[in-house]
Amino acid sequence: MQRVTVTLDDALMADLDRLIAQRGYQNRSEAIRDLARAGIKETALDGDAEQPCVGALVYVYDHAARELAKRLTHHSHAHHHLTVSTLHVHLDHHSCLEVAVLKGRGREVQGFASEVIAERSVRHGQLVLVPQGGDGGT
């Protein structure tokens, strides 16, 4: 391991200390390492749309919306090669949550996620991507 000295302004340091307390890190170094890894993974995917990745697409939708289930199923079938697994949860009388585990090229996974999230009556949606493959020791 290498030792690095970083200068942070007081407000940023206070935010970091709050994060450390909220997440239960043992020290600042662990928190900064995790934040650095997350930033590196995010920029790696931004820089190469063809890079293989895995992702979790999480979305909440109105299950009673006209034809929505049919449209969502159509999107899933059109991108069947990306889907590893799907979880469906009934949240209440009107809302369902789905989690789709996806695997493929970043561009394709992001495109599929954008199509689903953009559907009318999909209330909330978020895609979390992680590069697939070696982590380079991070």
From TrEMBL:
Keywords: DNA-binding, Metal-binding, Nickel, Transcription, Transcription regulation. This is Putative nickel-responsive regulator. Residues 3-41 form the Ribbon-helix-helix protein CopG domain. One of its GO terms (molecular function) is DNA binding. Belongs to the transcriptional regulatory CopG/NikR family. One of its GO terms (biological process) is response to nickel cation. It comes from Halomonas salipaludis. Ni(2+) binds at H77, H88, H90, C96. Transcriptional regulator. Residues 54-130 form the Transcription factor NikR nickel binding C-terminal domain. Binds 1 nickel ion per subunit.
